[in-house]
Write a structure and sequence with these properties.
about 35% strand; alpha/beta; single chain; globular; six-stranded parallel sheet; about 220 residues; 24 strands
């Protein structure tokens, strides 16, 4: 079976986490990816990639490196910052590469799920009638309930609970163990603090924290 070439952009902790997701996908009965290596702004400051048997290919700003990659190469951007992830994605798409969708085999996906691209990590649940944009990160152990819309470059940190009918705008970040109550709209570029319970709509660019969540300032 011909394997899909894949590069991982981002050589930090989440990059290594993403490598693990790809390796688990490849251990299933239908292996998919040939991991070419990692790209990052700067070389790793430790030997964690080498310990995992992975290769650092070079800088994400190295045009010559991209010219040498197979044109069929897909990429995933393993960087937690949504706006940065979006800029890198747009640059790679402009070069003619396609963004991968990586879903850990333990993820529970219900009916009528539309996920464009990004990563869904181990133990997460996506129930039914959910629309997910590009470059989305759904981290470990998240729950995304019915009729939810996640915009492009949304980041859900571990343990987030998104209840029914929620809409989360582009580049928004929801930190660990937060809960968003039914029908809430989270604006573009908004940030929800760890452990917050969101009971009312959050404006674009706002930062909210606490139980119930309250706005502290705009990003």
């Amino acid at each position: 079976m011909e394997m899909q070439p894949l590069i991982i952009v981002g050589a930090g902790g989440f990059g290594r986490h993403t490598l693990g997701v790809v390796q688990v996908i490849n251990e299933t009965s239908n292996p998919r990816f040939s991991i070419l290596g990692f790209l990052a702004k700067d070389p790793p400051i430790n030997d964690h990639l080498e310990q995992l048997g992975a290769h650092f290919l070079g800088s994400v700003d190295d045009e010559a490196l991209f010219d040498a990659l197979p044109r069929s190469t897909e990429f995933t951007v393993a960087i937690g910052n949504g706006p940065i992830r979006e800029r890198i994605r747009d640059g790679l798409v402009a070069r003619g590469f396609s963004e991968a969708l990586l879903v850990h085999p333990s993820v529970s996906l219900g009916s009528h799920i539309d996920i464009n691209s990004g990563i869904v990590c181990a133990g997460s649940i996506v129930t039914t009638s959910v629309s997910v944009g590009r470059s989305v990160q759904i981290n470990v152990g998240c729950t995304v309930s019915h009729d939810v819309v996640l915009g492009d470059s949304v980041t859900l940190s571990p343990g987030v609970n998104v209840t029914g009918g929620v809409h989360i705008g582009d580049r928004a970040t929801v930190h660990s163990n937060s809960a968003i109550l039914p029908g809430i709209r989270i604006g573009a570029d908004a940030v929800v603090g760890a452990g917050a319970v969101v009971t009312k709509d959050v404006p674009d660019g706002a930062v909210v924290v606490g139980v119930p969540a309250r706005q502290v300032h705009r990003a």
